[in-house]
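Hey L., structure's done. Input below.
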Amino acid sequence: MIVVEELTKRFGERDAVQNISFTVDRGEILGFLGPNGAGKTTTMRILTCYFPPTSGRAEVAGFDVTKDSLEVRKRVGYMPENVPLYHDMPVETYLGFVADVKGVNARERRKHVEAILDETSLTEVRDYPISKISRGFRQRVGLAQALVGNPDVLILDEPTVGLDPKQVVEIRTLIKSLAERSTVILSTHIMQEVEMMCSRVIIIDKGQIREKGEVANLRARLAQGGLAEVLVQGATLSALSSSLGKVTGVGEISETGKDGDATRYQIALTGSRSVMADIAATIIGKEWKLLELRQKADSLEDIFIRVVSGDSSSAAASPSAAEKKEAS
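Output:
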């Protein structure tokens, strides 16, 4: 559905995007992650034909973004981070206008807009001027205009910004359901959102793809041990550190609090092997009372920060090497 090959966009002497390649299959929700200035928005603007690439190619729904830009635009729904809305227009009138621009059949237009109002929970503000509704509702209008015309591809940039918790849950549920009829590229800084909705992720930094693949595979490949938490009765920090320091895969130990006459400790895990059984055996062998033991694996946010800060081995790899590690 989306094919990007050796795509580069240069502004003056700066490469905002540098030789990136990836594919997105039909019905897939791809998480597009990166810090500010990484090249996410530039890539999305190329895919939506806002401006052409400097070199390389991109194809959306079988059409080249440079040679067939009008055909691409017919098949793409785009919600930029700052949605350009006509604030003097009522919500329903605005969506009708968008439907007209997108070429929705005039006889079907009213029914189509009605369905989108209902789908995005905008019915209650349909007659309100956009300037008079809350930021959360305006965000919904931005998503609604992207859905007009039932596009093959949806490109959503921070779609839940400004929404209250209830609205966030509703929009996440809606986006997941959209994959049944559209391919979705989702750009967000909320890692929980990615883990809940996306089948794959791409991490981009300084215009280059640093990592890509399924969330579970990235975590398995890039996780660095994580943390263990224990609640122990009868052990001091120095005694626990001395005993557990002999266990391979155990790093720094710190005290994090008290729970009655027991103490809670955090243990950095430095290796890839599971050491939880060894930790438990060591504590019990010292005749301390082990009340709790649990492991906290690296989150996607941990992995993301490590990749973009250059602390993972793959983050330092060349773009071509990173591409080879995970098939598109």
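Residues 134 and 162 are 9 Å apart (CA to CA). The mean pLDDT is 88.

-- N.
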